[in-house]
Amino acid sequence: MHINYDSLLRLIAFAFALLPGFLLLDRWWRERIYDLQGKTILITGGSRGLGLVMARQLIDAGARIAICARDEAELERARTELEQRGKEVFALTCDVTDQAQVEQMVQQVKERFGAIDILINNAGTDIIGPVETLTMQDYDDMMKLHFWAPLYTTYAVLPEMQQQKNGRIVNISSIGGKLASPHMVGYCASKFALVGLSEGMRTELAKDGIAVTTVCPGFIHTGVVDHAVMKGQHRKEFAWFSIGDSLPLLSASAEKVARATIAGLRRGATEVIVPFPTWVSVKFYALFPGLSTNLFGLLNRLLPEPGGIGKERAFGKDSHSAWSPSWLTYLSDRAARRNNERPVTEPKATTEVKEVGTDGKVSPQVPPEVQA
């Protein structure tokens, strides 16, 4: 039997040339066939920042939204703004690190809207400082919020999704769940744990028709920096963190990350990494882990030494300096005004799950820049 190897190689080359086009077409098709109209979506940490921006875009796509957070006033501002888009929004106070509250919250959402079609685990925070300043409590708090909370919500919605053989779960991790940045060790450890949980869940739940998507964004200018926790030389730590959060080439807008996340959940993507420089960084780390960690070691030498307030905590809002806020943090400051990140209040413990906006009180005015 004679084989024309020249023709065979040309055929293979032609197939490889067409492959990117077929992949893009498949991606486009899967995003279009999954209709969000009428879907019930629960977003944890949905009262501000990325969670609020995703809620806006999902409502505009016709979804029914439930959001939860700890701060009642913050939730009410978010609910009032979102309902101006013409859809009912169910807002609940809930501490997602408390399993009993999570189960009660999920039950109330189901009683209001029916089965939860999509769960977005978005709640999170940052603790910034040298490893010498981190305490066991810091690590415990990060694990509770970034690992245990998504686990509680996932197990709360899972039985019904498995019964229906359908569902979407989106876990908002971070580039910090792919590569470990200096001065963010506790944060990165918890986000690595979330990535492992999310990817493991995807492999096991695919048989039940449930798609689990892991989202790993880099810096996002959502305006969250004033809510972050700083340790050590807290003003210097806040300066580098908030400036990095606003750099146009290194960071992305919350709107861009939200669009990429929603597109990923619609097509049931395994992973979403945005923006493009973040994707490049993750791939570079995967290929050259030793070199990457050595480069991070050099970066660490440029960051603030331990000292200052030591192991005590200071919020970003209490860590301002001549460097930040400034014109260098313009993008983050603008996002804070748009995304309900202000005023910044100290988080309060939530002891009960309750609906927000049903006590007859006058809803607070939504700032014009938020309505826009």
Automatic annotation (TrEMBL):
Bilayer-spanning residue ranges: 12-29
Start and end residues of each stretch annotated as Disordered: 337-372
Swiss-Prot/TrEMBL keywords: Membrane, Oxidoreductase, Transmembrane, Transmembrane helix
Stretches assigned to the Ketoreductase domain: 39-218
UniProt signal peptide: none
Superkingdom of this protein's organism: Bacteria
A Pfam family: adh_short
Claim: Transmembrane is one of the keywords in the record: yes
Biased composition (Basic and acidic residues): 337-358
Family stated for the protein in its record: Belongs to the short-chain dehydrogenases/reductases (SDR) family.
UniProt name for this protein: SDR family NAD(P)-dependent oxidoreductase
Organism (species): Nostoc flagelliforme FACHB-838
